[in-house]
Give the backbone structure.
Amino acid sequence: MSFQARLQAQSFGKDFVWGVALAAQQNEGAHNIDGRGLSIWDVFARRQGKIKGGHKPSAACDFYYRYKDDLLLVKALGFKAFRFSIAWPRILPDGTGKVNKEGIAYYHRLIDECLALGIEPYVTLYHWDLPYELEKEGGWTSYRMVRWFSRFATICAEEYGSKVKHWIVLNEPMGFTSLGYMLGKHAPGRIGLDNFYPAIHNAVMCQAEGGRILRDLVPNAHIGTTFSCSEVIPFSDKEEDVQAANRMDVLLNRLFIEPALGRGYPKDDFRFLERLELHNKAWKYTDRMRFNFDFIGLQNYFPLVVRYNPFIPVVNASEVKAVTRKVPHTAMGWEINGGSFYRIIKKFWLYGGVKELYITESGAAFKDEVVNGTVNDESRIAYFQEYLQAMLKAKQEGVNIKGYFAWTLMDNFEWSEGYKARFGLVHVDFKTQLRTIKNSGYWFRDFLK
């Protein structure tokens, strides 16, 4: 019996949520249309050498205008749920102050279209597109961040709460704080621990405060937040490699969930967190960092194999890449490992205090080409089969995993990778905006029937 024949959608249960995900900044385009303000990514992309190919998100997939056709694709592929984000600069062009009525109206139209098609909207409040005007005032490092974010969350809850019941507060806080405020590889391009520490703390505070706002304002709300996560594996059994892996685990997996669960910042021999811990104790923030989420979203793209490296500041660890280890990997060099996906699901479930898990993003980039009107992405189909099988195993062992969102509906602006990295179930020709369903999209259609 073939792998594909054994794997069936009904094995996950009739109430299991199958969805597809995308983000405003990566898809909408229309960056200066109908009153939208600039985001940090609009500005960051202008800086030479920051985005591969000099690409910019100003047009992206033109989803702002093509959302009706694209939602028909979601329905045609068999998905019953659609995860998208609300662009903060489209609602509040200056980050605070005057509300943009055109922006408000756009998301009403988008949500209404989802509901008309029988597609359940899952709305992410923050998916990395901070208004540039707030960045000029300090962005995620500013002590005013919680106040700014609370206003944005309140507006969204009041406007859309009667229609939207499933909410995600933050997308991958470790991603946007580390890449944007410590390593400088993502917008806004800041570097150093003096930026990273306050960005971490403000993100922790916002994820809890956003949850409380939604709880107060949206009747029967189903509230979650999402974390990027990676199983961290020591390269060898040497003690120095094991300790290096432990330090990376604190950063990549523990830093944001433990405060949400009421445990404060992770306790470890890792002196990196001492400053956060002192700040936390001094201001008695532990209660304000806690929120009883209805679900936690996991986004796992690769395991991380690390070895001790004294020349890397703070963590004293460096990655041993999949290419070097000669293991299966995607076009971006990310290791393909369904067993690791299973173990990271189990790790988060075993925390206790997590009621439900969703896989809120999952997918892979490959070098897709349209040949005679077809995109034959067999590698992506094999990837989904392997990862869904791993998820099913975890579910059958008692993990309360309730849904899976494929990343992503269509090829889009993949942050610093520009338009080179293609994750979509649908191919996009960025010159013509022509959509072509890939074979992986057809595979999902048949799988979900």
Notes: DSSP finds 18 helices and 13 strands in the chain.
